[in-house]
Specification:
Length: about 140
């Protein structure tokens, strides 16, 4: 099933971003590996309703009609660079990617986390499409 196409642009890039249209003015749709890549990226960057371990505050979801959807990776923006935070970022990505039906369980997804200075990380996620069997990668995600 096709989905509306939505690309996240690289910083400073004139391409991507928001809805895209074809030459006739109709909204573009995506399917196959492109749809899977977009779905994984959307899931990683969407935050679910979250109750911190100490129970002091409830962080609201990005999608109010589906409060459990999302991995919550954006909540790590600006996190201090540490091995614990890098491992948390990696685990958030792995948990989010494996929730998509079109991501093959084997070989397991690969998440590369790189420190960006003293506050923030860059994340690259690669996985195998369950639909086509081909390798797929998300755009590099910056959490700074």
């Amino acid at each position: 099933m096709s989905d509306l196409s939505l690309e996240w642009p690289a910083i400073g890039s004139p391409t991507g971003g928001d809805w895209q249209v074809d030459i006739s003015g109709d909204l573009l749709t995506s399917d196959g590996d492109t749809e899977t890549r977009q779905r994984v990226t959307r899931r990683l960057l969407t935050s679910p309703r979250t109750v911190p371990p100490d129970g002091t505050a409830i962080l609201p979801p990005d999608y109010i009609f589906e409060p459990t959807y999302g991995a919550g990776l954006r909540r790590m923006i600006g996190s201090a660079v540490s091995s614990n935070n890098a491992q948390t970022v990696k685990q958030i990505c792995l948990d989010g990617v494996t929730q998509e039906d079109t991501v093959a369980p084997l070989p397991p997804p690969d998440v590369a986390v790189q420190a960006l200075g003293s506050a923030g990380f860059s994340v690259a996620v690669s996985f195998t499409s369950a639909t086509t069997g081909r390798p797929v990668s998300t755009p590099k995600i910056s959490l700074s």
